[in-house]
Amino acid sequence: MSKVILSTRSLRKTYGKRDSKFDALRGITFDIHEGESVAIVGKSGSGKSTLMHLLALLDKPSRGEITLHGRPTAKLKSRHLNTIRNKEFGFVFQSFFMNPNDTVLNNVVLPLKIAGVGFRERRRRAIAALKTVELDDKRNNKANDLSGGQKQRVCIARAIVNDPKVLFADEPTGNLDSATGDKIANLLFRLNREKGITLIIVTHDQELANKCSRQIRIKDGRIVSDSSGEFEPDDDGDEEIDEIVGDNNIDGMLDKNHPTKHIKIEEGENE
């Protein structure tokens, strides 16, 4: 069995206070091993996106523990967390979060700029990443001129340009037609197989989830099944939620600390 790369123990996330209090996650425990392809599956409001943002260290749990390579992450300072996210993780979101008026190349090199990589090296690595997603010929095009599928491939190139250990994909095919979505899914799984990248996909699409080697199903903030066969219910004695609040913020998507609120793509330099 490969090494454990990410672990959670009795993970909880609560939003709001008093009458507006909502438990998005209610005791989540599992391990993810290096090289796995894992689908976190659930309906809207299940807590799956909240879970992904905690796993990616983009937000902090209310209670419980997350470990990366066996080391607790709770007491890591912001600067260290930023370094980990930049070097260890890659992110592919349903929304592209690109600078539409900049070139494809400048969008891809952004993580390398943040990491302080020099001009020549970041250009070389960005071009190599674009070749991996078969978009090398579009490097000088404006991002706004690409199709939806091409934009998502650019996002994948940006996600892998730093050779991450873990690739997080939040509904990566959600805004794409079926044929284009299949191409994006095949690309993600090829990266998982050929580069050994641990792939964690959040989705409500069962067809996409079936392509993963493992499925973790979430309902009302709890794991209800895990196809790894290692699942044991984490019974913390909580009462069941009497009424599910509306989908507008059920996964914490509108919480003031939600990372997508703060993603900003800076103007890239001409390269």
The gross shape turns out to be globular
CATH architecture: 3-Layer(aba) Sandwich
Provide the residue-averaged pLDDT. 86
- The proportion of strand residues reads 15-25%
Can you list the strand order of the major beta sheet? Answer: 6-7-8-3-9-10
Tally the structural domains. Answer: 1
Question: Measured on Cα atoms, how large is the radius of gyration?
Answer: 18 Å
The helix content, as a percent range, equals: 25-40%
Number of DSSP-assigned strands: 10
SSE order, as H and E?
EEEHEEHEHHHHEHEHEE
* CATH class call: Alpha Beta
Total helical segments: 8
In angstroms, what separates the terminal alpha carbons?
44 Å
CATH topology: Rossmann fold
Keywords:
single chain, 271 residues, alpha/beta, globular
SSE inventory with pairings:
Elements: E1 4-15, E2 22-33, E3 37-41, H1 48-55, E4 63-68, E5 71-72, H2 78-88, E6 89-92, H3 104-108, H4 110-114, H5 119-132, H6 148-160, E7 166-170, H7 178-195, E8 198-203, H8 206-209, E9 214-219, E10 222-226
Parallel strand pairs: 3-8, 3-9, 6-7, 7-8
Antiparallel strand pairs: 1-2, 1-4, 4-5, 9-10
Helix pairs in contact: 5-6, 6-7
